[in-house]
Amino acid sequence: MKEIGEFLKSAREEKGISLDDISNSTKIPKRYLRSLEEGDFSCFSGEVYLKGALRHYADAVGLNPREIISGYELLLKKEKKYENEKRGQRTHTKRIEDNRPVVARNKKKIFPPAALIWITLLAIVVVGSLWYLSQQPPGENAGIPYAGEPAPEENGGDDNNFDLPEEELFPEPEEPEIAIVSSSSNEIVYTLSKAEEKQVHLAFSGRCWVRIEQDGTLIEEATYVNGDTKQLSDALETRIRLGCPSVVKIGINGIELEDLKGIGNPINIIVRKAN
């Protein structure tokens, strides 16, 4: 993935933008931005966070986020295809080595008389067949097609699919959407749509008590301080109780919730994934 990282870095340097500038505008730590430019995506815990970081970086340097995401997915498919082909070659080579017959040395094999008789009869049959075919008039079997040759209509059709534009062969994925279902002074309910998996990320800039439930099960009840982060895995419903919402930033599939700014009282944040 170094191609994408080099492209992003080149765009940033051409516009005279520093990593600090991007980090301040996107709220993404510099070490993650540096990993993006180096093409090392192993520090991201999931595809959702990686794509979110790529999207924010591209937007910060004036690139089209959709084109960057599409380019990443295209390179990812090519890498997976290459790995599968490589794995298939290794498996084929091992299978050949495993099935290679063991040749016994220093042992003389003696053909039994019955085998010699069968070989002689087989030779007579082959010679007789060749002589019979040589006596047939030419062109007698010309109208009979070769059984292994496919009909003309079987050869066409599928290859034309590769003439389609790249954007039709690899359509862009839909962007996830966050919508507010209901809102009050002590509770806000959100719905996440157009996303197969829901990822919730919390970042703390101060001391805050938190209670987290997912699908009706208590996950954690703890106090976080400045610099702490918390990542939640996929669930149909996530319920978060915040004691001090103003010091918490919540990201859902890379989209930051803006509705917590200025809230001083404890509040419930509920995020549901649309079916």
Can you offer a commentary on this structure?
This protein is an alpha+beta fold and 275 residues long. The chain is 40% helix and 21% strand. Strand 4 (208-214) and strand 5 (217-224) form a beta hairpin.
The CATH topology of the largest domain is given as: 434 Repressor (Amino-terminal Domain)
In CATH terms, what is the architecture of the largest domain? Orthogonal Bundle
Q: What is the total tally of β strands?
A: 10
User: In percent, how much strand structure appears in the residues?
Assistant: 15-25%
Sequence-ordered SSE layout with sheet pairings:
Blueprint: H1 2-14, H2 19-26, H3 30-38, H4 47-60, H5 65-98, H6 113-135, H7 152-155, H8 166-169, E1 177-183, E2 187-193, E3 200-204, E4 208-214, E5 217-224, E6 229-232, E7 237-242, E8 248-252, E9 255-256, E10 267-273
Parallel strand pairs: 2-10
Antiparallel strand pairs: 1-2, 3-6, 3-8, 4-5, 4-7, 7-10, 8-9
Helix pairs in contact: 1-3, 4-5
